[in-house]
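QA checklist item 7 of 12: single-chain prediction sanity check.
[x] sequence parsed
[x] length recorded as 214
[x] structure emitted
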Amino acid sequence: MQLLSVNVGRPRTVEWGGRTITTAIFKDPVPGPVALEQLNLAGDEQADLRVHGGPDKAVYAYAHEHYAYWAMQLPAGSLAGPGAFGENLTTTGLLESAVRVGDEFAVGTAVLRAVQPRQPCYKLNVRFDDARMVARFVAAGRSGIYFQVLQAGVVRAGDAITLLQASPYSASIQDVAELLYGGRQDAGAVRELLRIPYLPAPLRGHFLASLGNF
């Protein structure tokens, strides 16, 4: 597993759909070492802290393997390079289906814990100038991974990503996404998720409420 690119961006104002929107979804690669703190990378910010950022969404990683799929789905030129999906870390070998909730990884001198899939908001539509992009992203089953920062450090493109400690729980990030987006109805799997102490509080509340639907 490897870190291909470190990407950061600050909020900017754009016009879309007749509205003025502030978003930090536009990320650009950064050469050299980048400090990774408890809540974000140096030079990176979130525009709306009500739904973005915080310790359970400190760092967002997206697998470069997914870019080939999107290159076939999107208009030419849509994928300008790493960071196209607003990810901080563009990676190889770090797939949602293989990473479990609670897995801990070393990247550079930092230590990260995988905790949840992305729940895309409308700003993904803005980024790709496509009102259907959020729906397409969810349907594609390529969510990316949000991490907590357990140990601040320095990361750079080319760093190895090493599994330090495997989660004692079997649920993958992909499992969470499938249950979250409604593509999988499984009360037993939801109950197993609720046993995981690393599951962020908003997701815990969502899944607790969902048990009433079974």
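[x] summary fact logged: The chain has a mean pLDDT of 93.
[ ] second reviewer sign-off
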